[in-house]
Please model this.
Amino acid sequence: MRQAEFGTEGAQIRWTEAEGRGPARVYVHGLGSASSVYHAHIAADATLAGRRSLFVDLPGHGISDRPAAFGYGLEEHADALAAVLDAAGAAGAEVIGHSMGGAVAIVLATRRPDLASRLVLAEANLDPNPPRTAGSSGIASYTERDFVRGGGFTETLERVGHIWRATMRLADPTALHRSAAGLIRGTDPTMRRQLMDLTIPRTYLMGELSGALQGCAELAASGVDVVTVAGAGHNIMFDNPAAFVAAIAGQPAPTS
Model:
């Protein structure tokens, strides 16, 4: 396990690492998740094995610290992720981000273009104020006080599925709420606009079961490689790991 300081309170963001050759692949989890849980099996696939791989837990999640005064907005998460890549000597990394982690990856690539050479985004959040769901919009519908101390965290754990619950229960409730609020607030310009303005290779994965991707044609026109993953919902790495591996490797998705 390795760590780097972030924020103003001496807190540490932590990651685990697999040694290997070539530019690092950096895996970033979604809201209420943890990177090794969601991505270690992907990086270990024979197609991807042999590359240096970092599994980063964002502030307030997994094994990273959860400072009380930290804001947990997308820009702050991105700056914490930048501290990891700086400490690890991993400039020019391929950043693989799921959901909120994908939004963080976009902001990182915009703020620190030296650190990201390619993005692979699995259903990354692109727009502020998404429709109400059990996820970020549901969490952010509570006040921070009600979520942390008024039963909102417990109610949310009861609503989400068993896969998400397994890691969400390990996240700090305050960090979870502030991260969700940050996703709802988004960025200026939006994550979508930032993604379209980037010039590095960008792949956006959308699960077939999640429905159509809004603004797909516009993303594609800006150079984003939009891929629909057969038989997958939001958790593409679990629903169709072979297709997820192929996208990271830059290969066509397997047909069977």
Summary: The mean pLDDT is 96. The CA atoms of residues 61 and 171 lie 5 Å apart. Strands lie at 2-6, 11-18, 21-28, 51-57, 93-98, 116-122, 202-207, 225-229. The chain has one domain: 2-130+188-249.
